[in-house]
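Structural prep section.
Before we set up the soaks we want a predicted structure of the protein with magnesium ion in place, mainly to decide which crystallisation condition to try first. Input record follows.
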Amino acid sequence: MTTRTTASFEIKYHQYLDADGKATQELPAFAKDMDKMRSLYRDMALLRAFDAKAYALQRTGKMGTFPASLGQEAIGIGYGDAMTEKDVLVPYYRSTGALLKHGVSMKEILLYWGGNEDGSDYAVAKEDFPICVPIANQIIHCAGVAKAMQMRGEKRAAATEIGEGGTSEGDFYEGINVAGIWNLGCVFMVNNNQWAISVPTEIQTACETYAQKAIAAGIEGVQVDGNDIIAVKQMAEYAFEKARNGGGPTLIEAITYRLCDHTTADDASRYDDPAVKEEAWKNEPMVRLRKYLEANNAWTDADEDSMKAEIAAEVDAAVKEYEAHPKPGAELMFDHLYAELPEMTKPQREAALALQAKGAK
Amino acid sequence: MAAITLIEAVNAALAYELEHDQDVVLFGEDVGKNGGVFRATDGLQKKYGEDRVIDSPLAESMIAGLAVGMAAQGLKPVAEMQFMGFIFPAVDQIFGQAARMRHRTRGRLTMPMVIRAPFGGGIHAPEHHSESTEALFAHIPGLKVVIPSNPSRAYGLMLAAIRDPDPVIFLEPKRVYRIVKHEVEDNGEEYPLEACFVDREGSDITLISWGAMMHETNIAAEKLAAEGIDAEVIDVATVSPIDMDTILESVRKTGRVCIVQEAPKSGAVGSEIAAEIAEHAIMSLLAPIGRVSGYDTVMPYYKLEKQYMPTVDRILDEARKIMEYK
Ligand SMILES: Cc1ncc(C[n+]2csc(CCOP(=O)(O)OP(=O)(O)O)c2C)c(N)n1
Ligand SMILES: [Mg+2]
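Run finished without errors. Recording the tokens verbatim:
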């Protein structure tokens, strides 16, 4: 039987800095700007310090469940840095880095995980979505946002993020599919941190990459070293530029390792191999960037110390604001349910307020 | 056997059926090596193997649809939804397929499957982890919806759910997963589905509830007893189809009814019970039916969840009001 090949594909892997902070190829221009690289290093350090503080708050009963980004900081900070304020972010629960970069405050993020809807009433990032917990819903929202931008002829992009496990959901395929058909200005970030809670990536897909899932949707799919912030930012910048200018969607698989538990409610020691984790620590994103900065005479121990002190003060100030934020009253269970509360529900609001008043005495 | 918690009882019942029925297969997100995020399936993969206790990919529609395919082949799948708030991608498969396969094929293909899901509030969980949406499932003909309230019922009802020839949605009230321990004999004896349990006999008022709220309802009954009010307490347990005989018999005796549910008030299981009582026993009522429920709003994030959920005091207030009615 004779056949001809009607389609074939390849997936490109991008890396600029290896685990030792050494350049593996000619670096993009921004990577030679040491002020820029110092500020990205600081962003990652802030995220790491914020996570540690959030963990401590949860452990002491001052906050609810929290998903950290340990080891994955280069992803959110990298693509977050490629966004402009006009772009729209549709985050998932582990998008803390991108949220912070896009103007959502530490206080707002703490409020959200502290069980208060006020945390999703963003003061700055007015068009950004609240954190998406039901996995993969956000992929289609991102397509919807980008469609609106396209209909209005705007040069803006919509970005979203999902875990590698989440790419098994129907919503993931449905979202990238429509983005492909309509050539939408979407940036789909896949945080491949090797785990979906306890489920390793081998159980999640028979594909050799997550990037190739994009191929079936007719969109560009690439892999980056998710621990190399230069690679993440460079690829994200390309994808955002393309999205803003009618070039259509891109899916970026960022390969990393979840060095933390899934959330504060998880215990990764039940399933993660300590030897593998120890190896993964050698690849984490901050050490290599620091080595790179040091090699370029752009970072010293004194810089590290003063940065850490500054960051600690910033995080502490955010925690103080969070703790000072008023506890929500019972009326907030009702006041934003509809534009107007139905007549049928009004007595329930009154009853809840009466109970609250009774409790306060 | 030692005293065990509700979640240990779920585990024991699953183990019993895995041991005694080769057709039983468990799957879902994190149910294998990790033993489930609440540990409901702890140790089962180790004991029964990766073929029968399967860590599935992350996709709820797939999980439910696999159960449909397996059940049609005569297996008895027990699928886990990690939280009830994430069951929605699977609703298409559950409502549109599992619930009606027997009917569509004139009984040729049947669905002896169970979908388990922890549900309900009160554990400071993040968004989408605390809702009580049992009424959505109770509304669908062809499904049975079972909610155990304590360890022995969890054990007996889980066995019955797995052995039942039709699809059962088995909702586990996670707030009471570990709150009490019961001596449960691991003897494979099931409890009947479609049967209420009478937790306490009384002659003045009938308190009706299910799931985690049985805890508050039983405490309220004790407090009422101290006030000289003799409450009968009914655990509905199977919220669809409902054993109305037990409920109506009690209502005819007491003439007064208070229904307690954690779910929003409207269009709910409590509404259906109230309607049934109105249809069949209205002449026995000495007072209007009372309801204590969650509010008709989105389950709030945890800072407000205590104010959302019915409390013992709210049950007492309503019960007293019903008792005072002349
Ligand atoms: C629809 C849905 N199903 C299940 C869950 C429960 N859950 C939360 S996180 C998670 C694993 C996600 O893994 P992955 O997509 O790889 O993202 P990661 O958490 O590793 O960043 C699961 C199963 C959920 N939030 N939403
Ligand atoms: Mg993951």
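Observations: The longest helix of chain B spans residues 6-20.
Flagged for discussion at group meeting.
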